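Exercise 7.
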Amino acid sequence: MASAAIAAATNIWTSSTFTDGVLLSSASGFNGCKLENIRAGSMSSRSSALKVSAVMAPPQPQQRPPRSTGVKHAMTMTEKILARASEKTRISPGENVWVNADVLMTHDVCGPGTIGIFKKEFGADAKVWDREKIVIIPDHYIFTEDERANRNVDIIRDFSHEQGIKYFYDITDRSDFKVNADYKGVCHVALAQEGHCRPGEVLFGTDSHTCTAGAFGEFATGIGNTDAGFVMGTGKLLVKVPPTLRFVLDGEMPNYLLAKDLILQIIGEISVSGARYKAMEFVGTTVDNMTMEDRMTLCNMVIEAGGKNGVVAADKVTFDYLEGKTSIPYEPVHSDDSASFLKEYRFDVSKVQPLVAKPHSPDNRALARDCKNVKIDRVYIGSCTGGKIEDFMAVAKLLHSAGQKVKVPTFIVPATQKVWVELHMLPVPGSGDKSCAQVFENAGCDTPAAPSCAACMGGPKDTYARVNEAQVCVSTTNRNFPGRMGNKEAQIYLASPYTAAASALTGFVTDPREFL
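Solution. The predicted structure, written as tokens, is:
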């Protein structure tokens, strides 16, 4: 079935297909669930004349992937991963190669569409290419009475049972997430916690923040439902090799900064289109000293710069994190010393100050202290970007140090069930063995909610902490476009957990140095 589908779509391409930027896996769909295959702008005047009848080409015969790509032709880390996954010894930016997927992830928002395409193109009774390489995670619109949202979860459940999907993290009792042993929460954090992110591999996901997994030294990128349906049936995808931008972060991180400040600095520097269809590789002494969760925060928001993928070289930090999480062998790769980078950016981290991204774009960068007169209505702490345990530890540290009550509603949304447990179990350093949950309660924050994406992407009106009015919110999430968290008139200020906590204490956008 897979080979027939590929063969049927051979030799349809026109010469302008590649030169004009028609991409075969989604480049920067901002809502994470859309297939956006034509590069913005460059096709506007000619798009009506170009008709793409198919997006497939014949794969190369199956061979065992080479252990090493060698260094006769110097390559970046992203190029090496794609070379190995396409069973080639060398590739260059701009080439289109058939890539073997190691993992395909989908969730409740895009899963039904992906499944529908899979069944339409491969047949109602078709079987997925590998039931142990597909991860299906309900996480977006879970704790809601919305019938269509609940139907989506039913669809992915039925499909997972039908196909015998090994890694389907189900939730059946929405009234109490804790009784659902298989339920995880936000897909990008759960993928890491459950050992699905491994150095040197290729991970495709129907969510634009799939790039988070690049923190593990793998090629991870978001794709649309059509691409995912094809991967589901064949285990392959035709990918255009991206050029790589190199970001060198050096210097000691000041105690008032977090990784969120650094990625806001970078996006503010290059803009939301500055890395369009490019790999963003992060290196430097600052990155070397980062935790895995810090690195995940960096890679998480490369899509907000238009990036195809983000990547950090695997090292001891990576290997220690993966210990006990996976039994699948992996082989890390690193950029060659003489590899060619499209451009290099250098940052002295010691000079970066706490930042926010003002409405309505992640690149609308400003110093937090310059927004001190902005009165806010609420604070939201959560998501794949800012809902990890280290994010909450940072919030708890500042709140405990301040010893004050929050002045605006402050919503706490752990990314996963494991994070929720850690919120209640792990002591906050210097707090006298208090847990994050206890610190939050003492400070007057809302009780930690059930783990999910919750209000990060708006969702049904009964979604927890959704911004249903034209309010001003400081959020640790990743996007602040109009309507992103609900009301189209709401104003969202993206910030680090430190800045979010400080702002909760004052009721205004606040530089965390006032409390640290």
